[in-house]
Write a structure and sequence with these properties.
One of its GO terms (molecular function) is nucleic acid binding. InterPro entries: DNA_methylase_N6_adenine_CS, N5-glutamine_MTase, SAM-dependent_MTases_sf, Small_mtfrase_dom. Keywords: Methyltransferase, Transferase. Helix 1 crosses helix 2 and helix 5 crosses helix 6. Strand 7 and strand 8 form a beta hairpin. This protein has 14 helices and 17 strands. It is α/β, with parallel strands linked by helices and 378 residues long. It has a seven-stranded mixed beta sheet with strand order 11-10-9-12-15-17-16, sandwiched between helices. The chain folds into two domains: 150 residues, no CATH class; 222 residues, Vaccinia Virus protein VP39 (Rossmann fold).
């Protein structure tokens, strides 16, 4: 636990500092209200000074939007038109860092004591758990917590399930349904596999799909405790809790399965927060470990399903030859590859700096088996 300190009305104050992105405690804090301008807030943020908001909640949101517009205008024409992945990430990181300097204080009960503020206690308790004292967080993070709680409460409708999945805060939401459709429609061996592993389960959506398709026992693993609890909750909600077992594990559980499904983060790169862990896979580590460990975790005649986009290839982050080499080195062979194109809004947004890569993106389900020589060696 880190502590943030400031002076307000000639008195020293302190609170717990919380940042999901791991941002350091601001070295200096200025208390501000509705008289604070966006230009002034930007100057403070540029110097590493946090603005602790005591004014109207809706005015704080407007101030955050105004800061965002100024950050956009400050970018050079080249930066605004940057199409490289490195430039895109650098711009987003800088933007997030500056905007995170507008902060608010939550009470010990996770309440937000600002004029016209909504009741955020339930959302904050779901994300952070109960508190023992006041805590200071970035307003941008708090807005994310509120939005995530709305998704968790309302759910995300998944056509392949004919039902909704309820993503918890900090768990990657299945808003891109095309990869789910691939798992829902890929041909299953006959008779239907008795056991399956779903590695990196997240919300548990793929584990539920497999259970609904008739798999008797699905072990869903994730290294994130929030995801394990979320997957367990969704399996229970959708009536397959008796067949889906969600466990905390670093990829593979013990034993073997007839079918192993893995949907690793699609982009090689270092996540800057736990929230990005579902997007970035450092050094393609999860992908490599899934492939290298597949043969020893498959029952004879079993299949591994790798669900992955080729966006990394279009961004120059990984070559197709590298993926094929990893498959070959693991003693695996490709039985089939099912493909689909993205349907999300950014794929058709010409203003997106990565538009060309997103427009060309293809998501695939690679059906893998143990190569014949490797199978006989077992």
């Amino acid at each position: 636990m880190e502590t943030i300190r400031w002076v307000e009305r000639d008195r020293d104050h302190e609170a717990e500092w919380h940042s999901e992105s791991g941002a350091p405690v601001p070295g200096r804090v200025v208390v501000a209200d509705d008289t604070m301008t966006a230009d002034a807030a930007m100057r403070l943020a540029s110097r590493g000074t946090a603005t602790l908001w005591r004014g109207d909640y809706h005015n704080a949101r407007q101030l955050l939007k105004a800061m965002d517009r100024r950050i956009e205008r400050r970018a050079s024409p080249r930066q605004r038109g940057e199409v490289t992945f490195a430039g895109h990430r650098a711009e987003r990181t800088q933007r997030a860092t500056l905007m995170a300097h507008l902060v608010v204080e939550l009470g010990p009960d996770r309440s937000l004591d600002l004029r016209r503020a909504p009741d955020v206690r339930e959302a904050c308790l779901a994300a952070y758990g109960p508190g023992s004292g006041p805590v200071v967080v970035a307003l941008s993070e708090l807005l994310g917590v509120i939005g995530a709680h709305q998704w968790q409460t309302k759910g995300v409708y998944v056509p392949a399930l004919g039902a909704s999945i309820h993503p918890a805060y900090g768990v990657f939401s299945p808003v891109r349904g095309e990869y789910i459709d691939l798992v829902a429609n890929a041909p299953l061996a006959q008779p239907v596999p008795r056991t399956a592993f779903d590695l990196g389960t997240g919300t548990g959506v793929l584990a539920v799909v497999l259970a609904q398709r008739g798999v008797e026992r699905v072990v869903a693993t994730d290294i994130n405790p929030r995801a394990v609890a979320c997957a367990r909750d969704n399996a229970q909600r959708l009536g397959v809790g008796d067949r889906v077992e969600a466990v905390e594990a670093d990829l593979y559980p013990d034993g073997r399965a007839d079918l192993v499904v893995c949907n690793p983060p699609w982009l090689p790169g270092e996540p800057t927060s736990d929230l990005e862990a579902g997007i970035y896979d450092p050094g393609s580590d999860m992908l490599r470990r899934f492939l290298s460990g597949l043969a020893e975790h498959l029952e004879p005649g079993g299949e591994g399903w790798l669900v992955i986009s080729d966006l990394a290839e279009h961004l120059g982050l990984r070559a197709r030859e590298e993926l094929l080499g990893l498959i070959d080195d693991a003693g695996l062979e490709v039985v089939d590859r099912l493909e689909t194109v993205p349907r999300h809004q950014r794929a058709s947004d010409a203003k997106d700096s990565l538009h060309a890569a997103r427009r060309a993106e293809v998501t695939s389900l690679w059906r893998l088996t143990v190569a014949q020589g490797r199978q006989s060696a077992r």
